């Protein structure tokens, strides 16, 4: 079942990364699409731009085709890498995080930029298509990691590390899951999260007091309906009625 990003531009996420409490502001989203190999169908990926409380830029990638969630963090590299010149098999000795490493290109894919929302930094100018390269980084002591570099997020002397986020890790890093099934509208999930927060008082939304006002109004209406002469629910389970006098409702005496 395909998933979608369950985020909203402008919202703040709170969690813990590497044992340090952090908050992240959702700045924008880029949706990439490319044709699946040997198919007429398109494969899409969402890339959400986040800014943490230190002003550092991170990206959250949601791969709709595999339902994977990957955190991209910037990593300094020297000299800079131009993704437009890369091919599979390209290999160089570079300094990554200040340490000597062997960097090899394992995959190069080209994609269209389907659409963007929010604030996306176009340091290289706005693009309609991009090139993404996957890198295999081997440090001198033998440790191996996977990183990426692409044209539409290109910053001077930076590439991105990749960290897969399972649902439990999403809870830890962001305080909640960041995806939803494709068939559930985003506003339904947001309402589902807001409702218990409003009840507990944990929600800081301006709409939380409205919830309590509406709830009290409903309670008062129900109390008024119950507290009447006939009762709201007749004890016999039938239709409520009043007994009328056999003598009629006119003047005194027996009817003629």
Spell the H/E element sequence. EEEEEEEEEEEHEHH
Indicate how many domains the architecture comprises.
2
- What gap, in angstroms, lies between the N and C termini? 80 Å
Mean residue pLDDT: 83
Relative strand content: 35-45%
Oligomerization: single chain
Q: Could you estimate the helical fraction of the residues in percent?
A: 10-25%
| Rg, Å, rounded | 30 Å
**Biggest sheet record:** 10 strands, antiparallel
Shape: elongated
Number of strands: 12
What class, by secondary structure content? Answer: alpha+beta
**Count of runs of 4 or more consecutive helical residues:** 3
Spans with pLDDT under 50 lasting ≥5 residues?
none
Question: Helices, strands, pairings?
Answer:
Blueprint: E1 3-5, E2 12-17, E3 20-35, E4 42-52, E5 57-63, E6 68-78, E7 91-96, E8 99-118, E9 129-139, E10 144-150, E11 158-164, H1 167-174, E12 179-181, H2 186-200, H3 208-226
Antiparallel strand pairs: 1-12, 2-3, 3-4, 3-8, 4-5, 5-6, 6-7, 6-11, 7-8, 8-9, 9-10, 10-11
């Amino acid at each position: 079942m395909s998933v979608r990003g369950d985020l909203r531009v402008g919202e703040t996420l709170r969690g813990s990364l590497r044992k340090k409490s952090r908050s992240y502001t959702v700045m924008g989203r880029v949706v990439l699409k490319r044709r699946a190999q040997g198919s007429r169908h398109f494969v899409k990926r969402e890339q959400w731009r986040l800014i943490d409380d230190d002003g550092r830029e991170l990206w959250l990638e949601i791969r709709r085709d595999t339902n994977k969630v990957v955190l991209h963090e910037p990593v300094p590299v020297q000299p800079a890498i131009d993704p437009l010149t890369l091919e599979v098999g390209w290999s160089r000795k570079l300094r990554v995080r200040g340490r000597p490493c062997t960097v090899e290109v394992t995959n190069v894919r080209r994609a269209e930029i389907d659409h963007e929302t929010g604030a996306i930094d176009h340091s290289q100018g706005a693009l309609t298509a991009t090139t993404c390269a996957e890198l295999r980084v081997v440090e001198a002591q033998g440790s191996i990691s996977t990183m990426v570099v692409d044209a539409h997020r290109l910053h001077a002397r930076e590439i991105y590390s990749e960290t897969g986020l399972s649902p439990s890790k999403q809870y830890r890093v962001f305080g909640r899951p960041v995806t939803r099934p494709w068939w559930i509208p985003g506003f339904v999930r947001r309402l589902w999260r807001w409702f218990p927060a409003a009840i507990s008082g944990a929600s800081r939304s301006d709409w939380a007091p409205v919830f309590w006002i509406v709830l009290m109004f409903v309670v008062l209406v129900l109390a008024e309906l119950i507290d009447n002469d006939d009762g709201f629910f007749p004890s016999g389970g039938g239709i409520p009625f009043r007994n009328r006098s056999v003598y009629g409702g006119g003047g005194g005496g027996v009817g003629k």
